Amino acid sequence: MDILNAFNEYETAAQSAIADATSAEQLEQVRIEFLGQKKGKLRDLQALVGKATKEEKPVVGKRFNEVRTAVTEKLEARLAEVATAKTAAESDFDPTLPGQAMALGNLHPITRTITHFRELMGRFGFRVVEGPEIEDELHNFDSLNIPMEHPARDPLDNFYIATATAMAGGPILLRSQTSTVQIRTMEQEKAPIRIVSLGRVYRPDAMDPTHSCMFHQMEGLMVDTDINMAQLKTVLAMFARSFLGPDVEIRFRPSFFPFTEPSVEVDMKWGDSWMEIGGAGMVDPNVFRSVGYDPEKVSGFAFGLGIERFCMKHFEVDDIRRFYENDVRFLKQF
Ligand code: DAH
Fold first, then answer.
1. Does any ligand 1 atom lie closer than 6 A to the CB of residue 131?
2. Which of 139, 153, 177, 284 has most ligand 1 atoms within 8 Å of its beta carbon, as the pocket-test mutant?
3. Domain range for residue 171?
4. 18 C-alpha vs ligand 1 centroid, how far in Å?
5. Of 62, 120, 153, 184, which has the fewest beta carbons less than 10 angstroms from its beta carbon?
6. How many CA atoms lie within 13 A of 17 on its CB side?
7. Quick one: 137 and 72 in the same domain?
8. pTM, whole model, 2 decimals?
9. Range with the poorest average pLDDT among 61-75, 88-102, 150-164, 185-199
10. Angstrom distance (rounded) from CA 283 to CA 193
11. How far apart (Å, rounded) are the C-alpha atoms in residues 282 and 240?
């Protein structure tokens, strides 16, 4: 029916005019145009209703009422909307104001160094493993070939935990070295092995600018059928170079550790001076035997580096205690 089409067109036109209006004034214009009693478009529709045939009338009349109600309601709703909405100019929002700076934290320098070390060693194919900080004597001493009478076992040089010891049925202590993780790894896995483990160790040292009773080490272990000292030197040199730049030198000095034979202490040239970075050596056959490896079939190297030492040099921190005081003024610098 043409009449109904006319209604639909009217409704569509009215709806979009209402939606486009952005002020009460504009809406008043729309009202006059579409709903006005005198010469609004609604009057034309009303005239159409008048012309409808007797049969058409009920349908057309109903539709007329529907359209009028719909348009009127829409107009009122939009009127309420524009009344509350503010224009950009009137709004309280000022896009030129500086934003509120968020207080962002940052990573602790030790954490950053650890992440960096992991990443470097990862590139050389060393997998990162973890071990517990509370250990038994088997892992902290026995399997590492540290004899009963060795001074490293002295209760005054270790944090033995009395209550835990009683509960565990044997002596328990806070690990004094990450070398424990060498043992734990070899107990679980067969060679070849290439791991690093970075974590906390504990020793009852008096706190001073270079000593802390808790600090961090990076332990490394590589075991295969043909591992030699030259590879140890290469890996440590590569590590040092990637950390400090291509010209850095490292040197080995003969030393002794119960778990390596031969053993060395490793120094790294940092600026004009040599810095001792840790101990290393070829895994002692007794260590292999303690974890069920055959020292005739496998060989390996191991190393242990102090992380704080690198961190202090790298970030120019002159007192190790600064790392643990949680002084935000200090931590903010990194
Ligand atoms: N565990 C030794 C320490 O804490 C450091 C060390 C030396 C680790 C030689 C090693 C190593 O793996 O081969 O003093």
1. no
2. 177
3. 109-331
4. 81
5. 62
6. 21
7. no
8. 0.71
9. 88-102
10. 12
11. 19
Query: 240 Cβ partners below 8 Å, 6+ apart?
Result: 248, 250, 268, 277
CATH of the domain at 183: 3.30.930.10
Count of CB atoms situated within 10 Å of the CB of 135: 25
CA angle (19 as vertex; 17, 20 as ends), nearest 5:
65
- Say yes or no: CB of residue 300 within 6 Å of ligand 1: no
State whether 41 and 170 are in the same domain: no
Whether the CB of 257 sits within 6 Å of ligand 1: yes
Supply the pLDDT for residue 166: 67
Alpha carbon distance 320, 249 (integer Å)? 25
Does ligand 1 have an atom closer than 6 angstroms to the CB of 145? no
The number of beta carbons lying within 10 Å of the beta carbon of residue 9 is 11
Q: CA 255 to CA 264: how far, in whole Å?
A: 5
**23 pLDDT band (50/70/90 cuts)?**
confident
Residue nearest to atom 12 of ligand 1 (CA): 303
Q: Considering the domain boundaries, does residue 170 fall inside one?
A: yes
| Pair 311, 282: CB distance under 8 Å | no
d(CA 292, CA 233): 27
Residue 309 CB contacts under 8 Å (≥ 6 apart), including other chains: 275, 276, 277
d(CA 176, CA 128): 19
In DSSP terms, 268 is beta-bridged to: 250, 275
**What would the pLDDT profile of 192-241 be if each residue is shown by its tens digit?**
999 999 999 999 999 999 999 999 999 999 999 999 999 999 999 999 99
Looking at the DSSP assignment, which residues form a beta bridge with residue 217? 199, 306
Q: Residue 327: how many CB atoms within 10 A of its CB?
A: 10
- Take atom 5 of ligand 1 and give the residue whose Cα is closest: 304
Question: Which of 303, 305, 308 most suits a substitution to test ligand 1, by most atoms within 8 Å of the C-beta?
Answer: 303
**289 — pLDDT class (breaks 50, 70, 90):** very high
Tokens 């209760």 locate to: 155
